[in-house]
Amino acid sequence: MNSFRGGTGGRDSLRQVSTEPADAQVRTIRVGLLGCGTVGGALVEMLGERGDDIEARTGIRLEIGAIAVRSASKNRGSGLSGDLLTTDARAVVADPDIDVIVEVIGGIEPARELILAALANRKPVITANKELLANCGQELADAAAAARTDLLFEAAAAAAIPIIRPLRESLLGEDVSRVMGIVNGTTNYILTQMTELGADYADALTEAQNLGYAERDPTADVEGYDAGAKAAIMASIAFGAKVAAGDVYHEGISNISAADIAFANRLGYQIKLLAIAERFETESGSGASEYEIGVRVHPAMVANEHPLASVRGSFNAVFVEGADAGELMFYGRGAGGRPTASAVLGDLIDAAGNKIRETYHPVPGGPAVPIRPIDDQSSAYYLNLEVADAPGVLAEVAGVFGAHEVSIRSMEQEGLGDEARLVFVTHEATERDIQSTLADLAALDAVHGVGTMLRVIS
Ligand SMILES: NC(=O)c1ccc[n+]([C@@H]2O[C@H](COP(=O)([O-])OP(=O)(O)OC[C@H]3O[C@@H](n4cnc5c(N)ncnc54)[C@H](OP(=O)(O)O)[C@@H]3O)[C@@H](O)[C@H]2O)c1
């Protein structure tokens, strides 16, 4: 039997090709939704719009059995039956008629406690909660493993952009060396405005707030905490490592000036806030190959030719490098109600199918991998100094680089009246060496100011 329903021709006839459900008998999976705000509300809408299609394509009827919210009195639009709403989230998790839990409340508690309770009841859980996963991911993964049930979180890393499933499944056999992403739309929007309109940081931030791209308190975005949580999640999946938010080195974009952007552009770079998870091969005492990982978030100069340089506005992208797959880029909407709910819905269909087949996807794991401190990580760097415009200054400055074995790749000088601005791009050096170079440069009488230091990605 074909459970395809609908007219003839056009899109429907295309659909008919793939609508034969594996099991002709439609199975109903009852969903307990925890949270009905931006993401939860969008998920309810999309299930209303696509529930029939999903049923036709998969043989699974996804039915919302209950929705837990904080406030019972809030107006939630006409499409939502008041009978489904409750303020008792624990009762939803414990309800034996609920098969699968979707957590889109956010924050640590009560989300953590509710997810643990759901897993203890052997209910698969789908969550978009990056903060919780980055801080308590291991505890949740252990609980899912003990219950032999799904804990799926595609939406938590880059919302609509599929990156968790490709890393977990498609690239499982790949030797992934680096995952590098623009994973915060707010900061990418601000940096794009600064680049394209020459706007100051403060003006670009105000505009982002007025447009709803940035929160009134923008700290989590502009100081790199949000990107740091996503970096921890991506590193954990890409490298089978246990990485928590506290392991991620982070710097934000609030020190980036319009002048830095102009310099970067002149040198052939775009400034982007990057989340980078990288694997470094090391050798054990016995000569066996081992590895460490570095996880960091900071603004970086990205060469114009790099695919990440062209990611503008509030868009996100994740660039993956593997030994055999080569370079891959995943691009799209990294936030927003419907883009995020789209990823949640994909996970929900997957978990529902697994529930019916009595199977699950184990969260990838492995032994604890040492985290390499930022001081021991290497990069090329951009440095910008204001110096006295006098004979011998350049040699003195170059001597400091040499003393720390930091080699200069390029240098530009610009006259500023009695002073000069020197802009350097170095070859690869360790963070420790570049920081001591900067400290010694700042101590020179001839150096009147040390500007922004940026890592360079080519
Ligand atoms: N928004 C995005 O673009 C986006 C993108 C990626 C990931 N995420 C993640 O998705 C999750 C949800 O984000 P959101 O933007 O949808 O948040 P939101 O709009 O603030 O919605 C949160 C929902 O949770 C409910 N809630 C809060 N405390 C509760 C409690 N103790 N018990 C039951 N319900 C409770 C709220 O109820 P009331 O409605 O009654 O206030 C609201 O419906 C977060 O983890 C976030 O990081 C969001």
Hetero groups bound?
NADP nicotinamide-adenine-dinucleotide phosphate
CATH architecture of the largest domain: 3-Layer(aba) Sandwich
**Averaging pLDDT over every residue, what do you get?**
92
Strand-residue proportion: 25-35%
Number of helices: 15
CATH topology name of the largest domain, in short, is Rossmann fold
What is the total domain count?
3
How would you classify the helix and strand content by structural class? alpha/beta
Poorly predicted regions are 1-19
Radius of gyration: 25 Å
Would you report the number of β strands? 18
What is the CATH homologous superfamily assignment of the largest domain? NAD(P)-binding Rossmann-like Domain
Mind telling me the CATH class of the largest domain?
Alpha Beta
What is the topological layout?
Elements: H1 10-16, E1 27-34, H2 38-58, E2 60-68, E3 85-86, H3 89-94, E4 100-103, H4 111-120, E5 125-127, H5 130-147, E6 151-152, H6 154-158, H7 164-170, E7 176-182, H8 185-197, H9 201-210, H10 219-222, H11 225-239, E8 249-250, H12 258-266, E9 269-283, E10 289-303, E11 315-322, E12 326-333, H13 337-357, E13 378-388, H14 393-403, E14 408-416, E15 419-426, E16 429-430, H15 431-442, E17 447-450, E18 454-457
Parallel strand pairs: 1-2, 1-4, 2-3, 4-5, 5-6, 8-10, 10-18
Antiparallel strand pairs: 7-9, 7-11, 9-10, 11-12, 13-15, 13-16, 13-17, 13-18, 14-15
Helix pairs in contact: 2-13, 4-5, 5-11, 8-9, 14-15
Properties at a glance:
Alpha-Beta Plaits, alpha/beta, 15 helices, Rossmann fold, 3 domains, six-stranded parallel sheet, twelve-stranded mixed sheet, binds NADP nicotinamide-adenine-dinucleotide phosphate, 458 residues, Dihydrodipicolinate Reductase, domain 2
